[in-house]
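Data availability (excerpt). The following record was deposited with the supplementary files.
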Amino acid sequence: MSKGAKIWFGIFLISFLPYLYIVWVSIVGMEFSWFFSTEYLLGAEAVCVALFFGCVIPVYPIVLIFQIIYIFLNRRKLTKVQKKIMISAYTFVIGVTALACAGHAIKEYVTIRVNYKKDQVAIEEYFRENYGDAFADGMYIEMPKQDTYIYSVSTPLMESKTSVWLHEETREVTLCGLEGDYMKEVNLDGMMGKHLSKQWGMPENMQLNVKVEDIDLRMCEPDELPHALLDTCKYWIDGWTMECSSYEEEQVVEKIEDFLKEYKRRGILLSVNGYFKFYVCVNGEYHASIVAYPVDGRDDKWELHFDGYSNKNGRTIEDKVIHIEF
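Predicted structure:
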């Protein structure tokens, strides 16, 4: 073998050095930062991220192309020893990386299984204690595909799934989205709006806009859900929506004034936004929105801000402000 051939073979072997980083990452992992979050990656995830950045800064493509060209041009000139060295190098890089990734995958799977069995008990106890047997009996907790502290849970009383968060160290339930998911599934805001509209004696073409703030599932029998929540939940009223065939401002102002008088009479809390908002729909399309602000904190003097919507004919109404007092 000539001196030049030896030098080129030496360069070929040196070109394996970038691969050693992949081997190292597959074994010990790497820290990965993305925007405002940082996590430590292990195994195949770490290898994929390292390869990605090694391709963005084209280290690995250049190395691979060089090796392919070198092997192709020297395929008949290589000695048996050189071939063995090349095969050994590739076997080492690929074999160690694959074994390390497999080892991390097996370890993670075992960890998932162990945590899953413990977490199942903690989640079931939490549901039984906080929501009763109706939600806990027959519940299904999905085993996650990776080690995590977030679980997806199905309960007999819900069609949709809910999420449960556990503390990463103590593995105790710290947060459960059951109430919010249940309210969304049964449309409790809409149910409460219809319920209160009926209590207030509102016309059929009008409905109160209600936001349910909190519910306590323990206070209701399972066979009474969700209607029993209407008498126990915490809520606030945001205003109303009115359906009509034509827009008449005087009628709208009159309905708003009736609502504000009823609000004053009943002594209910002002919307958490600090104002009420009313919507007028004409033939199923939004035509006007009116925001009512109390003047100087009074409940008998209001400032109404009228706002229209854009359509193919322009604005539905002109923006304006009027004052009412009663």
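Summary of structural features: The CA atoms of residues 12 and 127 lie 62 Å apart.
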